[in-house]
Design a protein that fits this description.
There is one protein chain. By secondary structure, the protein is of the alpha/beta class. It contains 14 helices and 16 strands. The chain has a seven-stranded parallel sheet, sandwiched between helices. Strand 15 (393-395) and strand 16 form a beta hairpin. Helix 3 (51-66) packs across helix 4. The longest helix is centred in the first third of the chain and has 16 residues, at 51-66. It is globular, with a radius of gyration of 23 Å.
Length: 410
């Protein structure tokens, strides 16, 4: 379906075309008409399916039609500053030929930014994209008027709740009129999300598209290794796997720093992103990565939902994520915009059970690659097994050791 078939305003269509959008994704085809009809919406879709444009385009179209720019018209709540910046950049591109104004509001910026944010909230920016904590800081000062908000969007709602923003979200919504259109987007639909939806949405339409499944075009691979083998193997994979842009995810910022240092010593052009970096430095690194000047980023999960770069064709998980959703979002950074991509996960002995749980979520086994001989012997992939104690073996069904299973592998 071509975007012209949605009958958007001509100035918005110009922005769509100049941004390189041509045909709508499945989630856009289903979501856009419902939003244009004025319905509240709860939508679940996997990463990389075009959710951002799915809610921005119909909201922007209605703002253009209403032609009232004196107050904040739309509020988009997001979990991280990276996602706020990303959505803000998308708005700038799509609204280039319109008179829509917007601002991204997030923590970690300096006092000068806070003054600019205050002015935008007081005088009225059509679309405000913000993190909950930063917005609450403004709300508590008493100068924010959300009486004109027509659209409330909660993006990555599951992530916001996981990060502990439930109370902040409730406080923010208390400042907004109930005469609004509310749109909730989430990668997963646990009960806590459904409770939130019941409290803030009115007779919502519900859209579910490929929940918790990475796109099939992502080639998923795994290497089963000992922990000390990970660092040299990552170096080898980055040097031997053709790629334009690559992201290496680490669960701990200490690992990010160590890996980045080792790769830089090997004369590889890499940069790091983690919570210890100042916001200006993060933005500088992201800009270099987006432009192609920095081909490799080593990052914590702070980046797993906060970057949308079409050229990422390689993602490496230095460690196994804590849950399947984090895995899906990590590897979802590649194979964007109909491109292909490779996602490689390094699995140590202690991480085998976690990876088996992820495979269960995916509904299939990830192809286990043969580690090159120069790295030495590697462990077998045997999840759900435990080393036997003296005189007994582990019975995974009973979750205890049983003498009858001594010496046997499960």
């Amino acid at each position: 379906m071509h975007f012209s078939e949605f009958n958007f305003q001509p100035t918005l269509l110009e922005g769509i075309e100049s941004s390189g959008y041509q045909t709508a994704t499945p989630v856009q085809e289903q979501v856009i008409p419902l939003i244009m009809q004025g319905k509240d919406l709860i939508a679940s879709a996997q990463t990389g399916t075009g959710k951002t444009a799915a809610f921005l385009l119909p909201v922007m179209d209605k703002i253009i039609q209403n032609n009232n720019h004196s107050k904040v018209n739309a509020l988009v709540l997001v979990p991280t500053r990276e996602l706020a910046i990303q959505i803000g950049q998308v708005i700038e591109g799509l609204s280039y030929f319109t008179n829509i104004s917007s601002i991204a509001i997030y923590g970690g910026s300096d006092g000068q930014n806070f003054v600019a944010e205050k002015k935008a909230l007081q005088t009225g920016a059509d679309i405000v994209v913000c993190t909950p904590g930063r917005l609450l800081a403004h709300l508590k000062m008493g100068y924010v008027d959300f009486g004109g908000i027509q659209f409330l969007v909660l993006d990555e709602a599951d992530r916001m709740l996981d990060m502990g923003f439930q109370d902040d979200i409730n406080s923010i919504i208390a400042h907004i009129s109930t005469k609004r259109q509310t749109l909730l987007f989430s990668a997963t639909m646990p009960e806590k999300i459904r409770r939130l939806a019941r409290n803030i949405l009115q007779n919502p339409a519900e859209i579910n598209i490929a929940i918790s499944r990475p796109p099939e075009k992502i080639v998923q691979q795994a290497y089963v290794v000992y922990e000390p083998q990970k660092l040299p193997l990552v170096k080898h994979l980055l040097q031997s796997t053709p790629h334009r842009s690559a992201v290496v995810f680490c669960g701990r910022k200490q690992d990010v720093k160590q890996l980045a240092r080792e790769l830089q010593q090997a004369r590889m052009n890499v940069a790091e992103i983690h919570s210890d970096l100042e916001q200006t430095k993060r933005e500088e690194v992201l800009q270099g990565f987006t432009s192609g000047r920095i081909p490799i980023i080593i990052a914590t999960d702070i980046l797993s939902r906060g970057i949308d770069v079409d050229t990422i064709d390689l993602v490496i998980n230095y460690d196994v994520p804590n849950d399947g959703e984090d895995y899906v979002h990590r590897i979802g950074r590649t194979a964007r915009a109909e491109a292909d991509g490779i996602a490689i996960t390094l699995v140590s002995e202690k991480e085998q059970n976690k990876f088996a749980d992820i495979e269960a979520l995916l509904g299939k086994e990830v192809n286990k690659m043969v580690t090159p001989e120069q790295f030495g012997a590697t462990p077998a992939y045997q999840p759900n097994t435990r080393k036997p104690r003296s005189g007994g073996g582990f019975n995974p069904k009973k979750r205890k050791f049983d003498n009858r299973n001594a010496g046997k592998r499960k």
